[in-house]
Design brief:
The complex is a heterodimer of chains A (136) and B (394). With 136 residues, chain A is an alpha+beta fold. Chain A contains 6 helices and 3 strands; from the N terminus they run H-E-E-E-H-H-H-H-H. The termini of chain A are far apart. Chain B has a 7-stranded mixed β-sheet, sandwiched between helices. Classes of the chains: A alpha+beta (136), B alpha/beta (394).
Chain lengths: 136, 394
């Protein structure tokens, strides 16, 4: 019998209780800011990129248990991925890694996907020379 | 860790004496109350005993009490029952924007079938203005429905004044009183209602039972056909054990009603004061004084409600929130929005509702664990940073 009866899987509760990579990155290479206070979920994702590989990721999230857990799991998944690989990460990838989410909470995982896409977009729109110089 | 249950507005634990009173009616006295032999009549007697107790608690007569499956059915019976029985008289119902869904959704249902519904606004404390009620009455108005106290923010509505207005206009007046009956003194004559909804499980009775008070002379149509039970107001064999349980719960509530309300109000005030002292950017929702003795509803800036509730649960504290994330609708509490709260404030709301088994130690435990939870959540909140930035800019 679990200690806590929850609508969430053990993995979700684990990431909710001990979220990984909370915070901001100084001089990030990309920032994604998605969601709005009206819908009750806001996520900020910071990424550091070296030679086209995401070497660090941190987040700040205002939201429910599912929003916090998907944010945390996302930062774990993207670390070490190339930009090309990261662009293939969908909300499904994150949900599966968390052993699923309740149906009403699936939209929270879209927030994570959107935050990642937005952070990568932010990185890619920076001039290439700047990206190169940053990666040295 | 001992569980601290602070969600009595959602439901209450059934009192052990209530359970004890119910048990014989599952086995020994299982007879159908409509049967004329003795084990049927024993059940009949138990139902009538419970009816007398409910009537006594609210200052009504026994024959004015109809047992239902709960508060929701009582609300449905009041609204639809009056609407169906008044088809030739009128088609207009007045209610408020902060009623329970058991009233609002029935109004929506009736609206879709041609009735006219006036949904009155409330002020920032959740209070309805009796003058608004007066102004909304037309010669087609058949019913006014205003809750006694709001289940989310605990605001007590000015029923006596609205009762006078309804009586003067000759309009039926219903109140959903599931949050007050058994908790604070309720008297149907003083409130001026002719319909009043009661729920068993909100007052330490069992789930699945409630009652509707129907003042003598009030005409309403039954929602159930198929039997003569409950003076033809509610067909179907009576839920004898549950009705007996409701009777016992009401009897126990009546014995301690004033004293318990006072005790809870003092715990409530201690918790409200403590939260304000230990947590910055926290706001009390609802009325500062005209509120249920057991209700505390606060909004905590920069954090979301469900994450607070989950963290409290990990500390074995049960509370609730009006955040969208706690519901399937993705909308924050319509009650908090009706009070004029911003969506952010509504998402960051937290409700504690105290009850019989709570003590000072429980309040102290909340005051001990909640500040840490909020600090942790604020540390990961992008809203707080935005706030600081704009504060620096300003």
């Amino acid at each position: 019998m679990p200690d806590v009866w929850s609508q969430y899987s053990e993995k979700v509760m684990n990431h909710f209780k001990n979220p990984r990579n909370v915070g901001e990155i100084d001089n990030p290479d990309g920032v994604g800011h998605v969601g709005n206070p009206v819908c009750g979920d806001i996520m900020e994702l910071y990424i550091k990129v070296r030679d086209d590989v995401i070497v660090d990721a941190k987040f700040k999230t205002f939201g429910c248990g599912a929003a916090i857990a998907t944010s945390s799991m996302l930062t774990e998944i993207v670390k070490g991925k190339t930009i090309r690989e990261a662009l293939r990460i969908s909300n499904k990838t994150v949900v599966e890694a968390l052993d699923g989410l309740p149906a009403v909470k699936m939209h929270c995982s879209l927030l994570a996907e959107d935050a990642l896409k937005s952070a990568i977009e932010d990185y890619l729109k920076k001039p290439k020379e700047k990206r190169k110089s940053q990666s040295r | 860790m001992r569980r601290i249950y602070l969600d009595h507005a959602a439901t209450t634990p059934t009192h052990p004496e209530v359970v004890k009173a119910m048990l014989p009616y599952f086995t020994d006295a299982f007879g159908n109350p409509s049967s004329i032999y003795s084990c049927g009549q024993e059940a009949r007697g138990a139902i009538e005993g419970a009816r007398a107790k409910v009537a006594e608690l609210i200052g009504a007569r026994s024959e004015e009490i109809v047992f239902t499956s709960g508060g929701t059915e009582a609300d449905n019976l009041a609204l639809k029952g009056i609407a169906y029985a008044s088809e030739h008289k009128g088609n207009h119902i007045i209610t408020t924007s902060i009623e329970h869904h058991a009233v609002l959704e029935v109004c929506k249902f009736l609206d879709e079938r041609g009735l006219r519904i006036t949904c009155l606004p409330v002020d920032k404390y959740g209070l309805v203005d009796p003058d608004d009620v007066k102004r909304a009455i037309t010669n087609k108005t058949i019913l006014i429905s205003v809750m006694h106290a709001n289940n989310e923010v605990g605001t007590m509505e000015p029923l006596e004044e609205i009762g006078d207005i309804a009586r003067e206009a000759g309009v039926n007046f219903h109140s959903d009183a599931v949050q007050t009956v058994g908790h604070i003194p309720v008297n149907v004559d003083r409130l001026g209602v002719n319909l009043l909804s009661i729920s068993g499980h909100k007052l330490y009775g069992p789930k699945g039972v409630g009652a509707l008070y129907i003042r003598k002379g009030t005409k309403l149509t039954s929602l159930m056909q198929g039997g003569e039970q409950e003076r033809r107001h509610r067909a179907g064999t009576e839920n004898v054990p549950a009705i007996v349980g409701l009777g016992k719960a009401v009897e126990l509530a009546g014995q301690e009603i004033g004293k318990e309300a006072e005790r809870l109000a003092s715990l409530r005030d201690k918790l409200v004061r403590g939260l304000a002292e230990k947590i910055d950017h926290i706001h009390l929702n609802g009325h500062p004084t005209r509120r249920l003795p057991n209700n505390i509803n606060v909004s905590v800036d920069f954090v979301e409600g469900e994450s607070m509730v989950l963290n409290l649960d990990l500390e074995a504290v049960c509370a609730s929130t009006g955040s969208a994330c706690s519901s399937a609708s993705l909308e924050p509490s319509y009650v908090l929005l009706a009070l004029g709260l911003s969506p952010e404030r509504a998402h960051g709301s937290l409700r504690f509702s105290l009850g019989r088994e709570n003590s000072e130690a429980d309040v102290e435990r909340v005051l001990k664990v909640l500040p840490g939870i909020i600090a942790r959540l604020r540390a990961m909140s992008p809203l707080l940073k935005t706030q600081n930035r704009s504060a620096t800019n300003a």
